[in-house]
Amino acid sequence: MPSFDVGDLLKRLRKQKKISQEELAFPIIDRSTLSKIEMGKATPHRKTLEFLFDRLGFDSNEFINHFMTPEDVAVKLVTDELSILLRTVMRAQELKGREEKLARVTALIQQLEDNHEYVAHPLNKQFILDVKARYAFNIKEDDKAISLAKEALEIVIPDFNVKSIADYYLNKSCTNMLNLLALIYCELKRYDEAIDILYGLKTNIDNTYKEPRVHAKAVSPVINNVARILLLAGRPQEAMDICEEGIKTCWYADEYMFYKTICWFQAKALHALGRTEEFIEISRKLYYAYDIFRREYDKNHVRDTLLAETGVDVASLPS
Description:
Blueprint: H1 3-17, H2 21-25, H3 31-38, H4 46-55, H5 61-64, H6 70-88, H7 98-113, H8 116-119, H9 122-138, H10 142-156, H11 172-187, H12 191-208, H13 212-232, H14 236-253, H15 259-272, H16 276-292, H17 296-310
């Protein structure tokens, strides 16, 4: 895809969103550089292009692969591995090979930091801070994780304020860091602060992403997190309502990564509201769904929770 086509596409998408060049570009590039890109007079850095499409509410992966050099491909292999590792090495889990995976994360971060051309771009620096923050959270260094997350946010939002989350133009790393901050505040039992962050982020996503699949992919982890924290905060009706929205969003867009966990939080909200029979029925469906997908940890968690809360052994119920 030539740079002229990309510039023209950026311009049309920006005008559709009624965003000025200054608003879209700040603080990563200046207005004049964006103007040159839109006119086909400058070829954007791949990371800059990813940032611009993210802010416009489009899946940047649909566009940036056209701009990958062999060096970009090599870096992407590292960043993809980091993202996978930090999803699988969770904070409280006793995981086989956990220490080896954490050591691998450290080695990959160092590999990126040793690439001076890579770290020269502010958005790549933001990604490294993003990864370091998630690593710190996984090893329960919460104060460090908060500091790193805020530093990552301020690369794109220099005047970051929690009360203005709904109004910012965010990229993927910003969304990651806001979800992370909410999870950290949850661990610290600062539930109201966590919920405020996630509601602000959800409003931002609802206003930014209009294509159903892209919207569902972005909003479902936020709904998943806010439902869980609402339950911990003793707000089951709110949790029930947000789960209903999340389930409909996932179904409509065929986005099922968080569908089952949102259903589980809905079940727990029903139980907290005294609707025990409905809690048992959803738990039964989830138990056998997890059994089909061989998700033993999740299957056993559903069984143990139901047994403790109601005395019913879901494994004895018909599939």
